[in-house]
């Protein structure tokens, strides 16, 4: 096997269970639409109610790109756009399913979830 094949085979997409809560929140934000870094930062700050440091955001975005969960493209020379990949979509869906499987333990809780979804 060639060295190139070894490197290609070594790329493994992490699942939602391997991600930090911060990374899962980034994926949830990108589920809505592609965004540039500062827009993601603002969404996170709104959720956390405090400042999100660039030194925390961008390394996590880079990790998600490296894991194949987010795609990074250049909007202009200074601005990158981040978009959820199909694998990222699957990771978000998998995390939601895992949480709901544990949360919905009876009909009352099922009703709470239905109310959140507007059903």
Automatic annotation (TrEMBL):
Lineage: superkingdom: Archaea
SUPFAM superfamilies listed in its UniProt record: Winged helix' DNA-binding domain (SSF46785)
Transmembrane portions of the chain: none
Family annotation (Pfam families): PadR (PF03551)
Every Transcription regulator PadR N-terminal domain range: 26-91
Gene3D superfamilies membership: Winged helix-like DNA-binding domain superfamily/Winged helix DNA-binding domain
Alphabetical list of InterPro entries matching this protein: Tscrpt_reg_PadR_N (IPR005149), WH-like_DNA-bd_sf (IPR036388), WH_DNA-bd_sf (IPR036390)
Protein name listed in UniProt: PadR family transcriptional regulator
């Amino acid at each position: 096997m060639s060295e190139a094949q070894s490197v290609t085979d070594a790329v493994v997409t992490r699942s939602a269970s391997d991600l930090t809560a911060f990374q899962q929140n980034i994926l949830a934000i990108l589920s809505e639409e592609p965004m540039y870094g500062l827009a993601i930062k603002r969404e996170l700050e709104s959720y956390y109610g405090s400042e999100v440091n660039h030194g925390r955001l961008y390394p996590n975005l880079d990790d998600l790109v490296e894991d194949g969960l987010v795609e990074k493209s250049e909007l202009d020379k200074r601005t990158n756009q981040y978009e959820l990949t199909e694998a990222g979509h699957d990771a978000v869906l998998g995390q939601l399913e895992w949480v709901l499987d544990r949360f919905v333990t009876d009909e009352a809780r099922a009703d709470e979830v239905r109310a959140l979804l507007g059903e």
